[in-house]
Design a protein that fits this description.
The structure holds 2 protein chains of 2 kinds.
Chain A lengths: L3 E10 L2 E11 L4 E5 L6 H9 L6 E6 L2 E2 L10 E4 L11 H6 L11 H14 L15 H13 L5 E5 L7 H18 L2 E6 L2 H7 L2 E6 L2 E6 L1 H6 L4 H6 L6 E4 L12 E4 L4 E16 L4 E7 L2 E7 L10 E6 L3 E3 L8
Parallel strand pairs in A: 3-8, 3-9, 6-7, 7-8
Antiparallel strand pairs in A: 1-2, 1-4, 4-5, 9-10, 11-12, 12-17, 13-14, 13-16, 14-15
Chain B lengths: L3 E10 L2 E11 L4 E5 L6 H9 L6 E6 L2 E2 L10 E4 L11 H12 L3 H15 L14 H13 L5 E5 L7 H18 L2 E6 L2 H7 L2 E6 L2 E6 L1 H6 L4 H6 L6 E9 L5 E4 L2 E4 L7 E9 L4 E3 L6 E9 L3 E8 L2 E8 L9 E6 L5 E4 L12 H4 L3
Parallel strand pairs in B: 3-8, 3-9, 6-7, 7-8
Antiparallel strand pairs in B: 1-2, 1-4, 4-5, 9-10, 11-14, 12-13, 14-20, 15-19, 16-17, 16-19, 17-18
Helix pairs in contact in B: 2-3, 2-4, 3-4
The chains are: A alpha+beta, B alpha+beta.
Chain lengths: 331, 365
Amino acid sequence: MAEVCLTGVTKRFGKNAAVDDVTMTIPDGSFVVLLGPTGAGKTTTLRLVSGLDQPDRGRITIDGHDMAGLTPAQRDVAMVFQQYSLYPHMTVRQNLEFPLKSPMLRTPQSEIDRKVGEIAEMLQISSKLDNKATALSGGEMQRVSIGRALVRNPSVYLMDEPLSSLDAKLRADLRLELKSIQAESGATLLYVTHDQIEAMTMATHVGVLDKGRLVQFGSPREIYENPVSIYAASRLGQPRINVLPADIFGGAPSGAASIGLRPEQIEQGEGEESLVQRVEHLGDQTRLHLTCKSHDIVTVTDPHTELKQGDIVRIRPKNPFYFDANGARLA
Amino acid sequence: MAQIRIENVRKEFGSFTAVQSSTFTIEDGEFFMLLGPSGCGKTTTLRMMAGLELPTSGRIYIDGEEVGQKPASQRDIAFVFQMFALYPHMNVRGNISYPLKSQGMPTPQIKAKVAEVAEILGITDILDRPVGGLSGGDRQRVALGRAIVRDPKAFFMDEPLGALDAEFRERMSEELRALHDRMNATTVYVTHDQLEAMQMGDKIVVMNHGVVEQFGVPQDIYDWPATKFVAQFIGSPPMNFLDFEGMIGAGQDTVQLGGTTISVPPSLDGAAGTLTLGIRPEHVRLDDNAAYRGRVVATEYLGTTQIVTLETANGPIKVRAPSSDRIVLGATTGLVFDPRTITLFENDHGRALRSRANEGVLGHG
């Protein structure tokens, strides 16, 4: 349970700034997700907080204490990586117990058993507790490594794409579990992903990274409903926001170079004619792939729409976003 | 291009039966998805169609010709794997033209063919680059190019996007589908990702434990699952299951759920005992005045919509609601089910009961 502060943190690898002057406060008890494509600086930021890498410039504090020069062990953080790392010669139970068996902690065995049982149940690996770690599938190994972080009570959890190797159903279950564990325990959690569903459903705050810079920090709702740029707007929302020349529907404010339209910002039935290129049934929603004045647009319509390829739909914007020539949002 | 038919195909590995007895038809020009969890037999099915495994019993027809026991080289199929391997010492053109060279095609023809394929894939300007420096997307396009260039009867793809990150996967899946729409080649595609299957497929086969659970067009499978497995495997979040003790007779159109009468599509089957009411999250509405009650235990924000989880007397239920609805954690509210969309399941085999609503999809038994 601790607040984590980054102030002007920069990390270079050669000429390349992997993390570029990042200032960010991760409030005590928050679930902060760093979001961005490969190479945005998410993992490097996490490694700087963990102590696996040292910043070239700037300051990192955990619970008010300057972390400069402290090793990962001295920082009281628990890490989960994308690539599981278990003790191969131990059973699942021994792997899970290991962090609690530290002589410094002196945890009573009954307490260890209770804790391990609880975590194993939550991660759906109870039946595998006495298997050798090497006899597990990749998904099971990953759950054990998440479990090994969760049995401890560190000031901060650091997780780097911990769910990306799991199948879809388990991932959905664990999203809810992780979120409720974090909410109940009040732990501070810094989490890296490129999966926007994970960011939206679990985060109290999302930090959007672009080429090492923090471009927006706020609740998922703030970033979705009030993005600062085309880049930030494109990180959240499925189908992705449509970005078109500003004047395509008329009425653009001065200085606008592009108009941004999420599906709910497109009204069907009136406005400009567009051609249905493809109707994509996803079950709960149906996507329309449209061409309007030779621009591609993807929007959402009623699951049981009668529309088909070749039909004409009229569309017009409703409370759209406008962006300037640099992609920054216009007020 | 080709129609592919699988008849009673079975595959055993020692005492393990990977595929039980599959029968389905892939029409000429279809984008066809083999969907299921790991170990369900989907890859084995694909490998049997390709000739990389021979079936223990059953028949496989490509364009009417029985090929079940023929090797892969005699089936004229192009295979695209999850890990696309390119020849690292060749440039893009060399990689794409390789299959034609080994067939002994004259150089001018190869040149024309490679140019045509590069045009289709939008990689004309990188033809003379080494493959080493290419982005992941371009590497994948080159791998596809190598498959397309041969003009095979069909394309088989085994999780070709599995190794890519989410954002890029979505873009490539749109591209693959658009490519298919231009070429109209029969494509069989293996995936465990239900969204990918819904998004790209003309038809889907859902497999589990070596058995075909359901076969049909994506929206039908989503709306009218034949089994509880399909109902849970397709859709995110999956279909809600509310278990109850009760009965329904043929012709009846209500059930009793915790003392509340719930309208359902008129049933064609009769069943009693522990039954399950299945309904999709977007077909439940929150309404304070409704008689059936639930307590809000969690919300998940998704942008346009949010998922609200409620606890009811018959178990948890997830509701897809507009994000603009303000939901209070811990509050008790009413739930309204859209009666046209409900599926009832019996629990012995997890099969859907037939009703007026799903008979068109599930047939008459």
